[in-house]
Predict the 3D structure of the following.
Amino acid sequence: MQENQIVHVMDDEVLFVNHFLVELGGSLQVTVTPGQLLLIPTGKHVEPMHASADVEGGALLVSDRMLKSVLGNQINIWNKAMYMKEIYVVDGKEWLGGFQQYTQALFGAERMPQLLREIIVSFLRTMLLMVCEELLRHEDMLLPNDQSSIHDKEIFNQFLLLLSHQEQKRQRVAYYADQLNITPKYLSAISKKVSGKNPMRWITECTMQDCYLLLRETDMSVKEISNKLGFPNSSFFSQYFREQAHVTPMEYRAEHKRMIR
């Protein structure tokens, strides 16, 4: 997936290439063309489906902490796009080339600048803000009725971060509320207000991403996956998966293997 260009990944990764078809999270397929960035949030598995022979790309990985530190309050734009609206491809034709030239000049110099760390942080902040600016151009990012306070959005962002880092995500809402030192009712109200979905929906969707990943990328048995993800038994896991994916775990695995041959 990484060649010789530049790609951005907020928390996990981002990519741009010539003609690159990828599947995100086991369901959504997106195509990336020259001058575009593929944005991949934490917890999203990416599966290359097809690439033209002349594809070139690179990756930039940014941790959760760095992303939040660099973007500040603008982290809400990133989280809304990635987790709520699922906008994963943005256009960078107008400014991406300039960033690439600057990067090559900076790291190709014979002597590294004394203020290299400060320069890199400023450079990264500018680049990520440009990405956020592109995200705001999507109609899906319009917020005509958004009444959420900064405090509400901050708690919701903390919930998403906590959820993304949880190995066994299928927990009760009360579990996550307790980690955030708030009541389940308050967490539900904030999640609904900020994202339009209740926290259990988020928990289910993130759990399913882990299910897709383990079924596609490992040879673990259904029982082993069930245990790893914290399900009481493999029968319950299979029923849960089928209710969400409308196929059994083994049917999903077989279909995936058929598609990538």
